[in-house]
Amino acid sequence: MTIPAASESCDGIDNNCNGSVDEGCLCEDGKEQECSLGPERKRVGECPLGKQKCVDRKWGICDGAKAPDFERCGGLDNDCNGTSDDRCACAKDADCPKDLSCVDGFCRKSDCPSGQVRCSGSCVDTKASGTHCGACENACAGGKTCQEGACKCPSGKTDCGGACVDTLLSGTHCGGCDKACATQEVCSNGKCALNCPSEQVACAGGCVDTNSNSAHCGGCGQACTGGKICNNGTCQCPQGTAFCDGACVNIQTSVAHCGACSSPCDQPRLCTGGSCACSGTLSFCAGGCVDASSSKQHCGSCGNACAGTKTCASGQSVGESTLTGNSAMATSHNAMPPHPRCPCPKSSNLSSTQPSPTIHSFSRQQAICPISSGLARLV
User: Fold this and answer.
1) Domain total for the chain?
2) Band of residue 105 on the pLDDT scale cut at 50, 70, 90
3) d(Cα 280, Cα 303) in Å, to the nearest integer?
4) Rounded to an integer, what is the distance from CA 89 to the centroid of its chain?
5) Residues 324, 331: Cα–Cα separation, whole Å
6) Inside any domain, residue 34
7) Which residues contact 191 (CB under 8 A, 6 or more apart)?
8) Is residue 72 left, alpha or beta, with left meaning phi > 0 and alpha meaning psi from -120 to 50?
9) What is the pTM (predicted TM-score) of this model?
10) Are 369 and 350 in contact (CB under 8 A)?
11) How do residues 226-271 score in pLDDT, each as one tens digit?
12) CA dihedral angle for residue 254, residue 260, residue 264, residue 268, rounded to 10 degrees
């Protein structure tokens, strides 16, 4: 597919992606300027600025500058778009760096509401989620809850040996950690005593109210599980949740129980307001979420494939390609995340002969533009 070339704008940037900056632009001998082989005339990610000097009224090489490259998935912004590792292949959110989500097989900036990230297919607040506390798949244990992104004991409980206990009624931690009551005693309001008050029952060495105690709900040893709480001696899910597969879940956001128990959303769709839907402006076509504005197979709507070697732009089938041989592979870049690079130079054809590095056990073809220097520029 032949792509029109940009022209040099004499602005210190390699506008036409040929590896030179401001060639053909007149300058004053001896003058120096900062120059960039990246998308902006400033350092972005791993693309530092260089310097070039005017000799014989022509700008020389841009010494010290570096052009954008494939994302190497090592925590650096190799493609110089302002975000590290946002084009790395992934299978799940945990494969991506913090603040990025796995969307359509690639790490991207989160498409969730402000303050949330996508974990296991759902948008969650990692500052409050007990199963994704501080980061995806980091679950709190020992009775701890997620508070500001850290697993901590809830108010009224003390961390004793990794478990959250109520020192007001614990027979082994009465009034403080490791302060055990004698065998014949019970813990009542943080003090060891011989008997419990009339409205409480002695359970596991402590005096409890079986109408509200989730560890002894309705009777000693009858613990509430799956996130249920004790209300009037009965274990119940908190308001706004439903009991599905042994746990209280929010059926408004759960991808496994969207709108009702055992009503899952097919990946990569999310559960929003109790309904399965693709994120953002993506459409659900042929079992996957696609961008109908650029998908060759679903251009403008599901199943509306571009004929022959035409491509999809803004939801419309456009142009004819000059590609031969690996044309189908080369045009598959439409389904990949957009890359912040210049278009190919004039009369250059897209090629897919060079695969990108294997990342997270995945590999993919990346469309490239051959240039005169022999280097490959990313589209």
Assistant:
1) 1
2) confident
3) 20
4) 12
5) 11
6) yes
7) 174, 175
8) alpha
9) 0.43
10) yes
11) 889 999 999 999 988 999 988 899 998 888 899 999 998 877 788 8
12) -50
Q: Which two tokens stand for residue 308?
A: 């022959």
Q: Which residues contact 182 (CB under 8 A, 6 or more apart)?
A: 192
Q: CB–CB of 179/195 below 8 Å?
A: no
Is residue 62 in a domain? yes
Residue carrying the six token digits 């189908």: 328
Domain, as residue range, for 43: 1-96+350-379
Strands 376-378 vs 368-370: parallel, antiparallel or unpaired: antiparallel
The residue with tokens 């060891």 is: 192
Is 154 domain-assigned? Answer: no
Whether the link from the prior residue into 268 is cis, omega within 30° of 0, is yes
Q: Take residue 91 and report the two structure tokens written for it.
A: 């299978």
Asked, for residue 43, whether it belongs to a domain, the answer is yes
CA 261 distance to own-chain centroid: 26
Which amino acid, residue 149? G
HEC profile of the chain: CECCCCCCCCCCECCCCCCCCCCCCECCCCCEEEEECCCCCCCECCECCEEEEEECCEECCCECCCCCCCCCCCCCCCCCCCCCCCCCECCCHHHCCCCEEEECCEEEECCCCCCCEEECCEEECCCCCCCCCCCCCCCCCCCCEEECCEEECCCCCEEECCEEECCCCCCCCCCCCCCCCCCCCEEECCEEECCCCCCCEEECCEEECCCCCCCCCCCCCCCCCCCCEEECCEEECCCCCEEECCEEECCCCCCCCCCCCCCCCCCCCEEECCEEECCCCCEEECCEEECCCCCCCCCCCCCCCCCCCCEEECCEEECCCCCCCCHHHHHHHHHCCCCCCCCCCCCCECECCCECCCECCECCECCEEECCCCCEEEC
